[in-house]
Amino acid sequence: MVNLLLVSLRYGETAPAVAAAEYRDICESTGLSQEQTSHLVIDSTNVELPDLANFDGVIVGGSSLNITNETWDEWQLHIHRQLEILTEADIPVFLICFGASWLAHHVGGTVGHSHAETSGKTVVQLTHDAAKDVLARHLPQSFMSLTGHTEAVENLPAADNITILADGPTCPVQLIRVGDSTWASQFHAEMDAVAMKNRMDFFYDYGYFSPEDYLDIVNSLPSIDTKWSNELLAIFVRYCATRAATS
């Protein structure tokens, strides 16, 4: 049986509720049961990662943090250290949204505001390199997902261990892999219509969408097919299980 660690990067009074919703979203999209998952909420500098040898893979949810902030407080610096530990460990890791910004910055790329996307639908298009990726090769050439971010990856250094697996018409870096076993999606691979509305309610005034557009966005969500976006996370889970069984 696969054993996954789900990590939530949440802070403040809403942290428990947002983390619980995130846990629901990841389990719903992957089919993971409570017996197959451990949930860690890093809501202070006192919370650190457990022994990763006890897990077959790690999924890291999004965060209201931004790489482009002028200064980083102690909690954000602590988050960066924990993510560095994850990506340097010999374990499959899938990072969502903020994780893409952090990973790009960590490997020497740039993050900015030129490709922000409002909450709602986004189109993800696989690159040529996706055909050789253990996760992305199972996906259709183009599919829809849900998103909402005020910053995005703008450039990545040219290196053999950094691969852009998907882009899109509104965001040029949608899915990346660093090394052999670390992936990051700019889009929310864990979200469905229920998840998107819940997240919009939590972050109503964070600048992810205009309040005047709230009802239009929410009403459009049920028509957005997130099947393949969610399947990406499910494929990651299956990859973790196979890797653990053969190692």
TrEMBL record:
Tell me the superkingdom of the source. Answer: Bacteria
Domain (Glutamine amidotransferase): give its ranges.
47-197
Query: What top-level class of enzyme does the UniProt entry assign?
Result: transferase
Question: Entry's SUPFAM superfamilies?
Answer: Class I glutamine amidotransferase-like
Q: So what EC number does this one have?
A: 2.3.1.46
- Acyltransferase recorded as keyword: yes
InterPro entries documented for this protein: ChyE-like, Class_I_gatase-like, GATASE
Name recorded for this polypeptide = Homoserine O-succinyltransferase
Recorded source organism is: Corynebacterium propinquum
